[in-house]
Design brief:
Four copies of one chain form a homotetramer. Chain A is of the alpha/beta class and about 160 residues long. Chain A contains five helices and nine strands, in the order βαβαββαβαββββα. The radius of gyration of chain A is 14 Å and the shape is globular.
């Protein structure tokens, strides 16, 4: 992949509250992104974020952590570029803005804020599990539904192409 | 209401895409907030935002518009304090942060980003119509459900008390 | 002054470290802005900010406090619209962005960050005392130099006209 | 240098208006930072920023560009992690916050806004040339004065140690 084709893929999902399945899926998503030469951008903390970063780091990928607080040491140990923003949860919007595409693994209010912001601003979203949305009728996924981590990464790299 | 008891109530909802019912509900919400002496905070543009501001302004209330762009003149004419933030949609998070409680009238991706951010950060949310959320089961409202504009304002002033 | 002509004037200067002269000048600046029907925007805390707000409030003016933290109660008692931003010192940039013109009363690093940002982004700056800048030669004022609070307000309302 | 000892060093200075001397100094600063294993953080654009990034990249270092706009392609070609923030000049404050120490090469209003913010928030500043500040008396440098790019980098790595 030439430098101009590098994709920045946001991986979002629950932190401390992530389930074992979500953590495993995030690790696999991270590994595949690392192998594909994508830059993984996340919130830099635990749960889905840490698992995705570990997967990517093991595969030799670059991981960026946009931390909510002002202390770099809050980053999980697999973040290669840790940036304390001091923005609190406003960093969620910054994360969305800095990505070509988003993969959401599981659901939480923070995750939903990122997915909604992405949908609002035209950043493609791939979802792997997580919450659904309804407008008076049948609930629907929040973005393009993926069946597996591999499917999620393939769709994301396709949607995030520029 | 003494100065220390002033509540800052965010009113969020669709802009240009707002339905006639949503606009009417927002106007009534605004009027009741103005009469109650609350400060109405919104995104400063059209649709639900403009209707709420007009309702509040007619009732003599103060309305704050946190504009996404850098041009103050983009504010609807009923905003009494118009602040261009230049933050784009990141101003949604700023809006949430500056409010004691949020009333969501109708649904949109931008509205959802605000509601999710509020839920993530502990700002109470009252919903009047709009989208529902599901986690594999029956869809549920995004916050405390109100039956009418009056019910929404009463619940918001109660939840936003300090 | 018709609504479309309302000016938003930022008043910036030292907080706790403000001198008695700076506090007195800021109070006079605030009073004159309040009498002129301008909206006074500041950082919402003490020193120059509190003095300017008090002056404006006594004259019946509107004062906006963009607070660095997340707690509205940190605002000085003369702020009429207090918005906790949670942005820390990044709120200095937001303040600049939301103003038509800036009046700097006295000098401090925070004040300098605001004046420099204003100069960088084309927001006119009037200075009343404070620091000077040199580029290897004679120090010069950071903006249009005013001789008195009245001169500062007159120049600001003139420069901030749209 | 172990991962826990990586320093994040901001390099700030004029963009398009940088002089040939400033560009040369920035390139040398970047090269030395790259060789030292530091992460170079900058605004991602031209002039001092591009020169510093090129120096660092040639030395195999990591460079982060926090872009003011929303378009990643605005980054200079030597940025290894390019993050469009969409914050405009507010990204100056974000840059300061994400760094352990700042090196300012030359002077401009944007540079001054970053240096002042750093001084305000306790981020150490090393200056190589650039503007001076006066408070009614003799102008003084804006931070720790360096005599050469090598001196600047040595002082920065020393001051930015944690």
């Amino acid at each position: 992949m030439s430098p101009g084709q590098v994709r920045y893929v946001g991986v979002v999902g629950p932190g401390d509250g992530a389930s074992a399945d979500e953590v495993a899926a995030a690790a696999e998503v991270g590994r595949l992104l690392g192998e594909a030469g994508a830059v993984l951008v996340c919130g830099g903390l635990g749960g889905v974020m840490a698992a995705a970063c570990e997967g990517a780091a093991v595969a030799g990928g670059t991981t960026v952590g946009l931390l909510p607080g002002g202390d770099r040491s809050a980053a999980n140990p697999h973040v290669t570029v840790a940036l304390p923003t001091g923005l609190g949860e406003l960093r969620n919007g910054l994360l969305v803005r800095s990505c070509d595409v988003l993969i959401a693994v599981g659901g939480s209010w923070g995750t939903l804020s990122e997915v909604a912001m992405a949908r609002r601003t035209g950043v493609p979203v791939v979802v792997l599990g997580g919450w659904q949305l309804a407008d008076g009728g049948t609930p629907e996924p929040l973005g393009v539904e993926a069946r597996s981590p591999q499917d999620a990464v393939e769709r994301a790299l396709d949607l995030g192409g520029r």
